[in-house]
Amino acid sequence: MQQTVAQILKEGRYSLVDVRSNQEFTAAHLPGAIHIPVDALQLNLSLIHELPRPIIMYCHSGFRSGLAVEFLQQHGIEGAINGGGLSQLIHFFEP
Q1: Which of 28, 94, 95, 16 is nearest to 60 (CA)?
Q2: CA-to-CA distance for 27 and 46, rounded, in angstroms?
Q3: What's the pLDDT at 95?
Q4: Is the pLDDT of residue 2 over 80?
Q5: Is the peptide bond before 95 cis (omega within 30 degrees of 0)?
């Protein structure tokens, strides 16, 4: 059975990767997120490979993070999931 993003966030053991642009990341991002723009994934495969699993990828809407998950799977990196958009996740981090 695959866990939902909500369950993973509640457990607190995950890596969070923001795949949006530099400008988007600077404007707002989730606490603890690592910034790796989707167009820089290839250059950061070794870093991503070392991240604790699961890896929650997110962007603005979920499109780029979906592409990122597919890319990682094609390169043999398992345990990455599409967390969707920032607005879908931010409420998990509000006090």
Answers
A1: 28
A2: 27
A3: 79
A4: no
A5: no
Element housing 76 (H / E): none
Of 57, 67, 64, 55, nearest to 13 by C-alpha is: 55
Kindly state the tokens that stand for 53.
């699993």
Q: Rounded to whole angstroms, how far apart are CA atoms 79 and 81?
A: 7
Question: Is beta strand 80-85 parallel, antiparallel or unpaired with respect to 55-59?
Answer: parallel
For residues 40-44, give the mean pLDDT. 98
Mean of pLDDT values over 77-84 = 96
Computed over every residue of the chain, the mean pLDDT equals 95
Q: Which residues contact 94 (CB under 8 A, 6 or more apart)?
A: none
The SS3 call for residue 3 is coil
Which helix (H) or strand (E) is 29 found in, with range? none
Mean pLDDT of 3-23: 94
How long, in residues, is the chain?
95
